[in-house]
Amino acid sequence: MSIPIVDYLVLEPKPHLVAQECTACKAKVFGRHNACPACFNESFAEYEVPTTGILKTFTIVQFAAKGIPVPYTTGIVNCGGMDVAANITGVEAIPENITRGMEVQLATFPLGKDAGGVEAIGFGFEPV
Amino acid sequence: MSENVWILGIHMTPFGKHADKDVLDLASEAALAAMKDANVTMKDIQILGYGNLMGGTQGQSLQKNIGQTGIPVFNVSNACATGATALRAGVMAIKAGEADYALAVGVEKLSGAGLLTGNTAGAMPENWTPKGRQGAIMPLDGYIGTTGMAGLFAQIGLAYNDSDPRADFELFARIAEKSHSHSTLNPNAAYQKAMSLEQIMGDPMISYPHTRSMCSANCDGAAAAVLVSETKLRTLPLEQQRRAVKVSASIIATDPWTPGNQELADVNTVTKNASQAAYEQAGIGPEDLDLAELHDCFAAAELVHYDNLGLCAPGNAIDFFNTGATWRTGKMPVNVSGGLMSKGHPIAATGIANVWEVATHLRGEAGPRQIEGAKVGLAHVIGLGSTAGVHILEKSGL
Lengths: 128, 398
Hints:
The structure holds two protein chains of two kinds. Chain A is mainly β. Chain A has a six-stranded mixed β-sheet, with no helix packed on it. In chain A, strands 2, 3, 4 and 5 form a four-stranded antiparallel β-sheet that branches. The mean pLDDT of chain A is 97. Chain A contains no helices and ten strands. Chain A has strands spanning 2-4, 9-10, 16-22, 28-29, 44-49, 52-61, 72-79, 82-88, 103-113, 119-127. Chain B has one domain (5-112, 218-395): 3-Layer(aba) Sandwich (Peroxisomal Thiolase, Chain A, domain 1), CATH 3.40.47. Helices cover 34% and strands 17% of the residues of chain B. Chains A and B meet through strand 4, strand 6, strand 7, strand 8 and strand 10 of A and helix 4 and strand 5 of B.
């Protein structure tokens, strides 16, 4: 048994992210919204976000609340025109490894099991 | 035509550690000194705007400490734009003709608070159960992005001008070097020691490329302002009219929808919108400014706001900074107080404290750090969420 870290990460048949796309103006957002923040239309359709993208910007977090593993890299990945906030994984979190404009792809990984043995699945983007 | 609004009295407590004072001591000190500066008492004040984001006190708590007169209080909460919002409440009341005198107060006690945000991780649940609008099964900080402001503004800075590779660690460190140099002339600053580029870059890294000395300094402090209608001002002694500072623009704006701004806060669009509205309201352009106090909560933020406030040509903030324009000796002095990075950032006080800084220069009372001949200045804040506050101030022509 496994469960995604957020409901906009869909694991089957292949892991991908699903955004909410306004049926009127095509604005795309993650998570449940009651109306479109751009045009106020009240209906959305699911939008499958491309699994590859370009890293626009990033930071390497060295200092965080107790319990959060540091350092880690996080940033904004532009996936076919839609910005996605995600950690950059599969590469050591040092500035020499991270370049604005680098190509990255969606990656998933286990985050641990809960008391019932269900595995949490996280996602990030790793260099292509 | 709505009423013009002036600052009649204003005060900022020293920023830093005030171990022997509580929030109400600091708020009272600022409020009483601002009223003394304005030659009024609580009896004259008709509306109070109050902000204390992290401390939980209300304007009513302040009234119980310095004067309960039954006036309306607007307790405001707008993240780091809280002080500017309290001020805006007073401006609106006077413009609406509902008051001749308003008091705005912002106060915070933050010494030793650690990071601005992200100090505490949420507890890991025993069972994975989707919760909230994104069906999250666990706290997301560190797993999908960061809630830490140092990291958030790092991303904003590194994205400057289509991710211009020249917006790098050293550039941001040189901006912090300026702040820490400017504050050596400011006796009210939390930090008053110059730092070399090597010291700044060698400081502990918080979120690359922000080291500790490139982050706003959490500290204690308060600021307060007494606002007056122009009609009332013209009945007051000439000396008070001469020291009064005109609020030529008072703008609070929130972030409009831009693609991606729910993934990374778009502080650029909101600041551009607020500053454009402010310039229009004041009938003043950025080329007319003699100084600006902008929201340098982190070094990278200062860079993007040169552009957002129109202090430089669009996309030209890096070259603009590299010419030395924003040093106190340059053509557009920015954050001559030392800014949030060195003067300090007691959150709710900041939006009034930066107005105090500008007003003090316009009055010619800034001592050794005075920008000579200053007639027009701008004060800007950003509160995440997001809100931009812009106030444009002018020296009295009398």
